[in-house]
Amino acid sequence: MTEKVVLSGCVQRGKLKVRGWTPTLGLGDGEVTVTIAKRRATRSLAQNAFYWSVVLKALADHTGYTVDEMHELCKQRFNAATLVLTDPDGVVVDEIRVAQSTTGLTGLEFSEFLDQVRVWAETELGVLLPLAESPIPVPADVA
Question: Where are the domains of the chain?
């Protein structure tokens, strides 16, 4: 049995047109949630490659942590949501920040994320990171 059905569509003149709609969805009886959201572009492959091969590599080389560990740190620091737990009366009993995935960020959101990482790396760690649009510097011993 299918647990999830994903349909794509568009809005034309204020009316939702759904492609692939069939009366039989393959879902069992029960409550469902329908979410309608406008599609948005995610970060580019070039942004992703720059982040992993330049930004995270430089941070890993500087700190001694792995690229994956630095990615988790950056997500926690610059792309986290705050979860708030309350008792039955609505009194806050706990709060925790949870790192969110960066894969769904738009190109603009990912650029802002990279800017925050860049400022932090420079001010807190003394690591100068190039801008994504800049040529990537080649170490003198490699050139």
Answer: 45-125
- pLDDT tens per residue, range 91-126: 999 999 999 999 989 999 999 999 999 999 999 999
Task: Give the Å distances, CA to CA, from 134 to 18, 92, 109.
Answer: 43, 46, 19
Rounded-to-integer distance, Cα 33 and Cα 54, Å: 40
Task: Indicate whether this model's pTM tops 0.85.
Answer: no
Sole residue written with tokens 């649009």:
133
Amino acid, single-letter form, for residue 59? L
- The DSSP letter of residue 139 is P
- Environment class of 103 (CB within 10 Å of its CB; exposed 0-12, middle 13-18, buried 19+): exposed
Angle at 126 between CA 125 and CA 129, to 5 degrees: 100
Residue from 23, 32, 46, 38 nearest 3 by CA: 32
Longest Cα–Cα distance in the chain = 66
What are the phi and psi torsion angles at 55 (to 5°)?
-65, -60
